[in-house]
Amino acid sequence: MKRIVIAPDSFKESLDACQVAAAIAAGLRKEFPAVDLVEVPMSDGGEGLASTLVAATGGRLLTAEVTGPLGEPVSAKWGILGDQSTAVVEMSQASGLALVPPNRRNPMITTSFGTGELIRQALAMGCSEVVIGIGGSATNDGGAGMAQALGARLLTADGGEIDRGAAGLRDLQHIDVRGMDSRLEKARFLVAVDVTNPLCGSDGASSVYGPQKGATPEMVPVLDDLLAHLASVVRRDLGADIMNLPGAGAAGGMGGGLAAFLRATLSPGVELVVQIVGLERIVSHGTDLVITGEGEINRQTAFGKVPVGVARLAKKYGIPVIALVGSIGEGAAEVLNHGIDAYFSIIPRPLTLAEALEKDKAAHFLAAQAEQLARLIRLLAGVPDRP
User: Fold this and answer.
1) For residues 350 and 171, what is the distance between their CA atoms, to the nearest angstrom?
2) pLDDT tier at 199, thresholds 50, 70, 90
């Protein structure tokens, strides 16, 4: 064993991807002090995208005060990558569900305005390419707020601006983009998505993701109709068909909104991150083992999440892949058909969720499990114990 690549996702609400990779490396190093351990934090476009790409490219993180999903100011992080011309923006930082207390979650009123403000910050810093991660959103406004922040006018019948939030879409009669930030014309926008949901219908934004954002059963069909109305006005006024665009339903229709207003390209998040961090180049050079991971491995992991995205790349080069995870959910065995050779939970004993999410505990559990994994590898390889 000469080289191990460690390429995990974050453990949501506990450790970011950089911390996860560091903890795994710490455990492995106890048994493999001479092995080259290469840490490559990953993301599929959700929380932690900015820190992941900034760390991988030698960029820098910045902070801006923007409008939160409830209209109140929030402090949001975003990044400029090492090339100094590419920005990375996380919707979760400006318009994220974690910014809304559970008792105030209502996708009829939450707005994506703050995400538009972050994009404007990136343009003001001279960035010509903007990578936007749209996971973890609190909104269902189809990106209307984002467009308003960038100068689009979403108008009522009497020529006034619609209210922010999905509820405002019921009054939308016309879209005027002539006043949008002129710097948008010279920039390229790449959107990291981890779902292919359409904008509307039973698999659409409102039906699938609305309830987790606070939508009641009665509210879901109303939200669906509002996004359908937005799509019809977009098609008439902007000439963009977002109703049938795969991924348009991501983040409460933000995928569709970014495609319509910014001509953004929607890409599977993990594939986009793999490209930006140069993971294929890293993995293909003499790697003996790849270790990945995420907070919970389950059936959804097979649909474009980080562990399977990493595993598929590793399998191009015949490299074994092991996943270390917080918990093992329903349908996890499906990932064994997609390149992961084995997965292990790091939880050593029964714990409450709150205990399991504690940063110090999670890091300790990761390091301890990685150490045990290294001991097993040493045993199976017939390598004597280290002195």
Assistant:
1) 52
2) very high
